[in-house]
């Protein structure tokens, strides 16, 4: 009996350790896959590069429209991808393995491995960054504060990103003292990283701005000079107050007034000023700058096709049609935000739980933001009408249909995407790159290093993880040659269409024998 008992214990222990080792390997593989996909989606280094460019644009080159377009393109590629691969599907065996791992970590006084919590953190970060991009800084900062509490004690990228971007949001809200605290924490906890470099850059800009303001207070500058200096220092409220003291504004002063209103979120008022500046004939340079702002607003910040059409016509009259073309090219590379649909479609789950409350709050914030945006769009359309700018028929219909559709995204059903893409006139002779989530981007060429894809169009490029690419088509007429695919070894092949599978192989249904690995692909362009 005793021998049988020992034998049974041995069998149970052997089974336990066998199951435990198999489960641990499964969890570790899931953790590795999750980590790789998370890094691709979050793209933290690119986010730092983008913030750096945004800061330079804000403080050093306010009227560099090309730089502004590049920043918008870069920002649209950050945290803006489908997260199918990040959905955790943990079996009972995986949960058992996770329990064993956490038991060992507890004995070694290490923090628990929490894959599900990491997944929730990603959604929170995506939402906070979307609010930051759309200039809802108070909502964004609040979510970053919550993330800071959740990540307290962590030295992961998520914590560094949270501190840096919360600091930026606080600066934009005028809360500089709180911003300094966040930025200095980022420098102290993450020294020598790109996060610390950006925090130091932002602090240096702020200190320079504060020094300028102190100098301005003690100077005896005329209101005309003071307004310009305040504008350059980024103090838009004071700029407007100073301009109000002037009896009559010059073209340049009116432009500074409009720019200040735009930076403070008073877009419709700014547009009204810009239109007046475009219509005046005394100062061509100011008219060009004002018209470029209208193009940027109509294409990026407050989409309005009527305004864009008006500005394109004015650009032609002013001899600035190249700028109009560049801005439109840039617009076509900007990815639409996928986080909006994702959050609105998410199930709230069990009511009463903390998670359900948080998701409900995020949904409410997002709906409020969409309503606010809709109201601003209507306001802008009213301004455009008042200025006697022709309203496009499709825009009138769009406004009529827009009523009571704030939550319509929830009803969107996934449907099979046809192989034939719709080609707009301006996209003829270009590549059409279809992403795995169905979004389509028109570009001149595709370049890759095996991990990141760069889609080039004119003066701009959009960088994306290679795993997001589903297929590449050409918009040239049938009968013409299609895609010219160049490999790193120098070999070139012509394909009618390229598809990419999960194994990282590029192929054509008509040439299945020819498959190109991610690591071998160099460039794709129209032949």
Automatic annotation (TrEMBL):
Keywords for this protein:
Coiled coil
Q: From which residue to which does any coiled coil extend?
A: 353-387
Would you tell me the protein name for this molecule?
Tetratricopeptide repeat protein
Source organism (scientific name) = Leptospira ilyithenensis
């Amino acid at each position: 009996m005793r021998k049988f008992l020992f034998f049974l214990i041995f069998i149970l222990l052997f089974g336990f350790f066998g199951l435990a080792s198999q489960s641990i390997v499964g969890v570790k593989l899931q953790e590795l896959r999750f980590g790789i996909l998370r890094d691709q989606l979050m793209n933290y280094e690119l986010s730092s590069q983008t913030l750096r460019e945004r800061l330079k644009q804000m403080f050093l080159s306010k009227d560099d429209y090309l730089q502004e377009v590049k920043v918008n393109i870069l920002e649209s590629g950050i945290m803006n991808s489908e997260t199918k691969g990040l959905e955790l599907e943990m079996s009972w065996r995986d949960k058992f393995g996770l329990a064993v791992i956490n038991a060992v970590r507890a004995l070694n006084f290490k923090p628990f491995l929490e894959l599900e919590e990491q997944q929730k953190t990603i959604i929170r970060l995506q939402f906070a960054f979307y609010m930051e991009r759309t200039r809802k800084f108070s909502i964004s900062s609040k979510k970053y504060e919550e993330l800071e509490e959740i990540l307290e004690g962590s030295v992961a990228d998520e914590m560094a990103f949270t501190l840096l971007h919360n600091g930026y949001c606080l600066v934009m809200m005028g809360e500089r003292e709180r911003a300094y605290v966040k930025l200095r924490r980022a420098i102290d906890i993450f020294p020598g990283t790109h996060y610390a470099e950006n925090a130091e850059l932002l602090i240096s800009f702020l200190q320079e701005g504060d020094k300028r303001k102190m100098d301005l207070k003690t100077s005896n500058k005329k209101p005309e000079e003071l307004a310009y200096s305040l504008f350059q220092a980024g103090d838009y409220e004071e700029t407007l107050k100073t301009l109000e003291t002037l009896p009559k504004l010059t073209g340049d002063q009116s432009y500074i007034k409009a720019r200040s209103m735009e930076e403070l979120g008073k877009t419709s008022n700014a547009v009204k000023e810009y239109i007046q500046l475009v219509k005046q004939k005394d100062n061509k340079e100011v008219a060009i700058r004002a018209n470029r702002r209208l193009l940027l607003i109509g294409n990026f910040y407050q989409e309005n096709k009527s305004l864009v059409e008006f500005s394109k016509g004015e650009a032609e009259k002013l001899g600035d049609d190249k700028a109009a073309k560049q801005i439109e090219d840039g617009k076509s590379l900007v990815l639409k935000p996928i986080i909006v649909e994702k959050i609105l479609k998410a199930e709230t789950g069990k009511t009463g739980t903390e998670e359900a409350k948080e998701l409900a709050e995020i949904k409410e914030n997002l709906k409020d933001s969409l309503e606010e945006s809709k109201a601003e769009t209507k306001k802008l359309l009213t301004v455009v009408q008042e200025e006697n700018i022709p309203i496009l028929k499709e825009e009138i219909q769009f406004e009529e249909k827009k009523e009571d559709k704030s939550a319509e995204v929830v009803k969107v059903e996934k449907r099979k995407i046809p192989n034939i893409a719709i080609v707009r006139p301006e996209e003829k002779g270009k590549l059409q790159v279809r992403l795995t989530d169905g979004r389509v981007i028109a570009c001149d060429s595709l370049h890759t290093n095996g991990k990141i894809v760069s889609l080039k169009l004119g003066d701009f490029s959009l960088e994306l993880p290679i795993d997001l690419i589903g297929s590449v088509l050409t918009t040239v007429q049938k009968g013409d040659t299609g895609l010219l695919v160049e490999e790193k070894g120098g070999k070139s092949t012509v394909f009618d269409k390229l598809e990419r599978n999960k194994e990282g192989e590029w192929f054509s249904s008509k040439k299945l024998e020819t498959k190109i690995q991610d690591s071998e692909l160099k460039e794709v362009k129209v032949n």
